[in-house]
Amino acid sequence: MYRTIYPISNQKKYKQAGPDDLIEFLPPPGEHPLIISKGIAEILVYGVVNREKIHLSGRTGQAKTKLINDLVAEPKNFEIICHQLGYPVRPLKVFACEMAMFEAPSELWQHRSLENGNTFDELSILMQMLKQAAQLTDTAYPVIHLKEFGRVHSSAVQAGLPNIMAEGTIRTPDNQLINGRSMAWLADSNYQDADGQYTLVNLDDALKRRFTLHICMEIFSPDQELAILQQTEKFYQ
User: Are residues 21 and 38 in contact, defined by beta-carbon separation less than 8 angstroms?
Assistant: First the structure.
């Protein structure tokens, strides 16, 4: 019977946990603790530290967003895993970009804006984030988070991403050069589902090949669910 959940806050117990065991994160203020596979948490941190291009997939409700949030909102979770894996402890800085805001591939680079009755080309939010992230590469672990990856309005938007995510140099519309390997990329989606559930467009094959790390959120076994319910009950008592 599966009963043990290892607290991340207890260094000795956390080290005892295997990759398939469940660990309990420290909760951000006012939130309930996240309980997740130790292997998934450590693979994600590995990818962030090593500036990988990460695809985090899973069905709605499998805590993809909460996993990312709890690494940011409660920095000790990220710091503890970094320490256990032998990586330098630095702040995690995530730049979240909603994919649903882009309707054409050109908008990934820049968009038309209006000021004082005049229109002009302005850097896209993605380009602005890339510039900010590149400045932090020596002091933090910067991550470009492509939120709700499967809910872009057009497959052409996805098709426009491979060149930006290339490992070489990114030239922004304002002619600045950015090292494409100076930050991690993290896209979350529901593409794990074979029927394409909760997605608007298919995952572009060329884009899929750009990801160097694919993490699928697992479905808990009945024993794991029971252990989680018992642990959660203790939290609210």
Answer: yes
CA neighbours within 13 Å on the CB side: how many for 237?
A: 6
Give the residue carrying structure tokens 């080290």. 15
Note the helical H segments in the chain. 11-16, 38-49, 64-73, 75-85, 125-134, 155-159, 161-164, 205-210, 222-236
- Annotate 7-27 with DSSP letters as a single string: ETT-HHHHHH--TTSEEEPPP
Domains of the chain as residue ranges with CATH:
5-236 (3.40.50.300)
Least confident of 40-44, 135-139, 218-222: 218-222
| pLDDT tens-place string over residues 128-186 | 999 999 999 899 999 999 998 888 878 889 889 998 988 788 999 999 999 988 999 99
> From CA 81, how far away is CA 75, in angstroms rounded?
10
Inter-CA distances, 166 with 2, 46, 76, 223, Å: 43, 20, 31, 42
DSSP 74-97: SHHHHHHHHHHHT-----EEEEEE
- CA-CA distance, 103 to 99, in Å (whole number)? 9
Q: pTM for this one?
A: 0.88
Closest CA to 23 of 10, 32, 31: 10
Res. 82 pLDDT band, cuts 50 70 90: very high
| Residue pLDDT, tens place only, 94-104 | 999 999 899 89
